[in-house]
Amino acid sequence: MERVAYYENYVILLTGCVNPGNMSYTSLKNTAIRLEQYKDAIRFYLSRTEVKVVFTENTNFPISYFDEFNDNKNFEYLTFNGNSYDTSLGKGYGEMNIIEYSLNHSKFITPSSILIKITGRLVIPDISIFLDNYSKNHHFKVIMCESNITTSIAESRIFIGPYLFYKEILIPLKEELNDSKGIIFEKVLAKAILLFVKKYKGEHVFFKKAVKIIGISGTSGEPYRNKNVLGKVKRMIKYICFKIYNMF
Fold it and tell me: Are 206 and 133 in contact (CB under 8 A)?
C-alpha cells in the first residue's frame, strides 16, 4: 500500500479508553488487550500516512506505555481523567469528552485543521484513499460520514470534517447524550451534521467506497464483519438513495 501525501492541516484523532472499568454498554474491558489494539492502530496510521496523529485517552493511562512513539514527530499522546462521569450516560458521552479535550489541549489541532476522527482501536486499511478523496474534492464546509438515508443516525467509527464542525456544532450537543435513554453518539452526530449543513451551507457526503474496518467492537466484543459482494451492492443502493433524497 502506498503512503499518502503529507497534508499540512490534516490530523487523525484516535479516541481511546484503555481502562474502561465498569462503563455501561462496553463488552471488551480487558486493559491489556485494549492497550495492544490501540498501539497496533497507532503504528498503522504512523507508518501508512504522513498525517499527524493525536491519540487521546480518558483514564490517565501512563504515557510510558507509549514510549516507542516518542521520537515520531507526527505523534501526540494526551491523557486525562475523563471517565469518572455517570456511567449510565454511556461511552458516547466519554467519546465527546475526549474530542473536546483534544481540541482544547492538542498542539497539533488548530482552527484550520481537518480532523479525521477514528475510534482508536480500529484500523481503516483504506485510510489513504479517504484522505486523498477528501483533499482533492472537499474543503472546509464538508462532512464525510456514512449515515442512513435521512441522516437520523450516523456512523461514528470514522468521520472527517473541519475544526469548525467539531468546535461549534458537535461539542455543544454533548449534554444531550444519554445512552440509557437511547440518545447515543450516532444520533447526536447525525443531528450535528444536519445543523452544520444548514448553518454553514455545508455538504454531507458519503465515502466513495464502503469503509473496511479491522478490529473488535468494544460494545459486542465481536470482530467487525466487512461487507461481502451483496453487502457492497446494498451499500451502493443506499448511497444512490441518499443522493436522491438529499437533492430535494
Answer: no
Task: Kindly state the greatest CA–CA separation across the chain.
Answer: 53
DSSP 8-state secondary structure symbol assigned to residue 165:
I
CA distances from 164 to 100, 111, 129 (A): 12, 7, 23
Check if the beta carbon of residue 55 is closer than 8 Å to that of residue 9. no
Per-residue pLDDT, averaged over 203-208, amounts to 90
pTM: 0.89
Q: Average pLDDT in the 149-178 region? A: 96
Query: Strands 158-162 and 203-205: what pairing?
Result: unpaired
Where does residue 55 rank: exposed (0-12), middle (13-18), buried (19+ CB within 10 A)? buried
Instruction: Look at residues 73, 69, 167 and name the one whose alpha carbon lies nearest to residue 117.
Output: 167
With CA atoms as reference, report the closest residue to 37 among 207, 184, 213, 189.
Answer: 213
In the block, cell 487521546 appears at 56
Q: What is the pLDDT of residues 99-142, one digit of tens each?
A: 999 999 999 999 999 999 999 999 999 999 999 888 877 677 89
Neighbours of 61 (CB within 10 A): 19
Distance CA 134, CA 213 (A): 19
The per-residue pLDDT for range 70-97, each reduced to its tens digit, is 999 999 999 999 888 888 898 899 999 9
**Spatial separation of the C-alpha atoms in residues 34 and 210, rounded to whole Å:** 25
Instruction: Write the CA distances from 96 to 19, 57, 82, 127, integer angstroms.
Output: 17, 12, 10, 22
Helix (H) or strand (E) holding 34: helix 31-48
